[in-house]
Amino acid sequence: MAKRILIVGGGLSGTIVANGLVRQLGNELRSGSVNITMIGTSDQHMYQPGLLYLPFGRIREHELFRSQRKVLDRRVPYHIDPATNIDTENSTVTTASGKTFGYDYLVIATGSRIMPQSIPGMEEGGHWFYDLDGARKLRGALDDFKGGKVIVNVNAPHKCPVAPLEVTFMLREYFEAKGILDKCEITYTYPIGRLHALEPVAHWALPEFEKYGIKYETFFNTKEVDPKGKKISSEEGVTLDYDLLITIPPHNGAEVIEQSNLGKGGWVPTQKETLLQEGSTNVFVVGDTTNIPISKAGSTAHFEADTIIDNLTSLVKEGRWARNYDGKVFCFVETGLSTGTYVWFNYTTPPNPGPPSQMIHWFKLAYNRLYWLSARGLL
Known about the structure:
The chain is an alpha/beta fold. The protein folds into two domains: 3-111 and 254-328, FAD/NAD(P)-binding domain (3-Layer(bba) Sandwich); 114-250, FAD/NAD(P)-binding domain. It has helices at residues 12-24, 26-31, 68-71, 122-125, 132-144, 163-178, 199-212, 255-259, 298-318, 358-375, and strands spanning 3-8, 34-40, 44-46, 65-67, 78-80, 83-87, 92-95, 100-102, 105-108, 112-114, 148-154, 184-189, 215-217, 222-226, 231-234, 239-241, 244-248, 251-253, 283-285, 329-334, 340-345.
């Protein structure tokens, strides 16, 4: 009987896994000893990191999207039919249409979602760039902005951990180019006692903030937003006035994870080296869906996906494990509209951001164009 590999989720990590498995298991697919199926929610694949550039007019909307069917290898059946229940005890997944898919190996790649509604007033009073509608609205707000107090408000957990720093640096240069920087005051809030969860990144960011006159308020866990009074308050009792509020909303995992009792908040408990669901031998978890305390970022998803491809291929072909995931993450960090730096780290090596340069910024822009090769597993 054919080995059935089922992938739930059509974002970056699930797509890389599917395309990589097709290349590694081509003979098995042709012989019918393996089949690979994907369940997703949309016929479009979006390059999510590109949303950061949309409010600043540095990318066009159409550049963010391609047909999922064209990104995904034609040998993988793709069902636009959201999963509603994942039953790991009986090795089945049920979808919104009522179909049931069985599997021998499951890859859960259901991603994350923003939850601005979880904080009173945030939906009405805040702007963000973590989805298309939010990025569009922020673009309009920046177009109309003439100066005043700007709050960049970071909530946890959230994906792309360097993005709040990036948007802060980009805002400063945007206001400078617009000729209103002297009329603007930027304040960055963070929920713990430094500017970033990764201590070396926080230590790097602090002098950069001070050099550019960017204010900050740490230990700021958002309690509520007052859209009419234009105020944002923290659980710690601090209230800040704003003219423009740019928030990084808290994130949850997919609803199907909670509905299936697979993990609190939509995060699946995951063994950090094998990327298997804790207690499982045939359920892999990848990308934002894991509860592993490392960055929820595109590069994390990519490196995790590569590990899963190797292990699933080895299990199918040889009945053995191939390798463990070492926690590798690599992130470009925009430090303005024309400069950037980068961080890389793993479970044993901490990040060490270098001096910003224009060259690294251009590398980031180049990767924006190469993303589609990455999603197809060619990069």
